């Protein structure tokens, strides 16, 4: 038989247990909701083969580092090309990545995309491109929470971003 104090303790224990279970359920619901809202905010779908799908296109972010030419070759082997950034939204998509090759090169003093289109909008960091010799390829890199472009020698080794349009 229980004494009066044991009965009070048991009731308190049951109340505390119910309270903790409810808190866990609410926390789990909050995590699920935040995950769903993040997916909506980024409009990002991860595909099984390492590609990511957003409104702008399909992207592959490499996990290894290569020079610009070898990076582009890898993209071509994947049926894609180094990414061409056409908008601020697309540029913002890459703000979590640090120093990745994009499909922008300096040809005879003019920066052009790999599809030979002229650079119309740009996201160069302050002082970039700096015009130094042999810095003819571009990376996008995070800097203080935003993504900006920097010119580098094409022989430097960085990760890269492949882009292909959804088929």
UniProtKB/TrEMBL annotation:
It comes from Cyprinus carpio. This is C-type lectin domain-containing protein. One of its GO terms (molecular function) is carbohydrate binding. Keywords: Disulfide bond, Lectin, Membrane, Transmembrane, Transmembrane helix. The chain crosses the membrane at residues 16-34. PANTHER family: MANNOSE, PHOSPHOLIPASE, LECTIN RECEPTOR RELATED. Residues 54-163 form the C-type lectin domain. It holds the Pfam family Lectin_C. SUPFAM superfamilies: C-type lectin-like (SSF56436). InterPro entries: C-type_lectin-like, C-type_lectin-like/link_sf, C-type_lectin/snaclec_domain, C-type_lectin_CS, CD209-like_CTLD, CTDL_fold.
